[in-house]
Design a protein that fits this description.
- The structure is a homodimer.
- The first copy, chain A, is α+β, with helices and mostly antiparallel strands.
- Chain A has one domain: Alpha-Beta Plaits, CATH 3.30.70.100.
- A 4-stranded antiparallel β-sheet of chain A has the order 2-3-1-4.
- In chain A, strand 2 and strand 3 form a beta hairpin.
- The longest helix of chain A has 14 residues.
- The first copy, chain A, is globular and about 40 Å long.
- Chain A starts with 8 loop residues before the first strand and ends in a 10-residue tail after the last strand.
- At the A-B interface, strand 1, strand 2, strand 3, helix 3 and strand 4 of A face strand 1, strand 2, strand 3, helix 3 and strand 4 of B.
């Protein structure tokens, strides 16, 4: 899971339904994850996809300007175009400002700080 | 996937790593999803968990007061306690204000509105 920087920062919540078959998706997803991690303002990413093909990827960024710059990255544009032509049945994208964040780990045994 | 209300609204991004085995998790998760949907201010939920046990659930709410009220719900408290005792190795929870949102569907063929 992604680290927990101090809020405020930004989340890009990308929820998508895949088309059947890989069609090069896995390789491109790996490449985009590595490329995103090199961009200014990148804070981390979390991603999960179930057997029903519904996936959620949340990437975290320092600012909306950083998100916009990544959005304009040439390779990212190509990946988005291929996503619409080949990989996705539908998707939603939300930009959200993270106002509060906390974590819990079994090994720490710490209580829920907001219980 | 969840509907797309007009921003602003709030997202609760819950990322978790499951312990092995079900241990009653599936039934409780279904019950919590149904119960959450009955709460004031609930707008929707999206959830995915991969074979590695990493899951992301994003629920959407009209306001932080609605999130707090759901947090205080007695049955939800019990579920959280059981999550920490039985179901999760670790989790993170983030409260984020959704500022922008859009969707794309293959059948609509619409262009990316922010391309």
């Amino acid at each position: 899971m992604s680290a927990l920087p101090q809020p405020p920062y930004y989340a890009v919540i990308f929820t998508s339904q895949r088309t059947p078959g890989d069609q090069g998706y896995g390789d491109m997803a790996d490449h985009m994850a590595a490329l995103a991690a090199e961009q200014p303002g990148y804070l981390g990413v979390e991603s999960a996809r179930g057997d029903d093909g519904l996936g959620i990827t949340v990437s975290y960024w320092r600012s909306t300007d950083d998100i916009l710059a990544w959005r304009r990255h040439a390779e990212h544009k190509i990946a988005r175009d291929t996503g619409r032509s080949d990989w996705y049945r539908h998707y939603t994208l939300r930009i959200a400002k993270v106002e509060r964040a906390y974590g819990w780990q079994r090994e720490d045994g710490e209580k829920d700080p907001q219980a």
